[in-house]
Amino acid sequence: MKAVGIIGYKKSGKTTLLVNLARELKKRGYKVSTIKHTAGSLDLPDTDTAKHKEYISEVAAISPYESIISLKGEKKLEEILSYINADFVLIEGFKNEKTFPKIVCLREEKESAQLFDGLQICAAMFSPVNIKLDMPVFKISTDTGKIADLVCKKAFKLPNLNCGGCGYETCYELAKEIVKGKKSINECVSLNSPIKITVNGKSLALNPFVAKVIQGSLEGMLSPLKGFKKGKIEIKIK
Ligand code: SF4
Question: What is the DSSP string of 186-208?
């Protein structure tokens, strides 16, 4: 799954860009999901679901057309991503997250000083006139195709484990190098772990130490068993 963030201040065109980009990627045959950060609560006014939420912390609603689960409290982005099955996830807001590249929507050039954090792959504006930035600056209303081309080339998501296995202390450090084109996502040992564990169909992010311990323990336990040979091991636990 690849991800790209869309950040910017209020009225900078984030949602317009996100909707246009989602439409364009879908037109190209990709499965697209979106996640939006919001400062307020996620109320559904005047619905029965809202009445449930008044008294109960976890509420689900299922209709023939869609299903929702409302969980109490703010969840980590990675936890929510584990529910999503898509080629691209467009993440609106979350400007403090540092594990994926970002499109920065600007109302004026000087906002770049506060919003650029080394993960920006381009800027986007409603009226990009006389803007001098060291990167592509697109017009939100008309450049969706060009932005989609860039997203297809540059989108990625690191696991946010900060395990140090890639030689950088944090995922943010590697993410900045990937955005600069100096490193690739293949440097993340967690994403390229020899062990894959899925729980209820969702992959777990494993840091290299845990992966090694699991691999060593399993091989150690299985090796005395009749028929064991070193090779690919598959275990399913119901
Ligand atoms: S190996 Fe992957 S998970 Fe670990 S710090 Fe590097 S990028 Fe993050």
Answer: GG-TTTT-S---EETTEEPP--H
Residue 187 alpha carbon, nearest atom of ligand 1:
1
In a domain, 36, yes or no: yes
Taking the chain (238 residues) in runs of 10, the rounded mean pLDDT of each run is 96 96 97 89 72 80 88 87 92 95 96 96 94 94 97 96 91 98 94 81 74 88 90 84
Token pair recorded at residue 94: 């979350």
Beta bridge partners of 124: 105, 138
Q: At 147, which CATH number?
A: 3.40.50.300
Nearest residue CA, atom 4 of ligand 1?
163
Cα–Cα distance between 128 and 148 in angstroms, integer?
A: 18
Q: Give residue 82's domain range.
A: 2-154
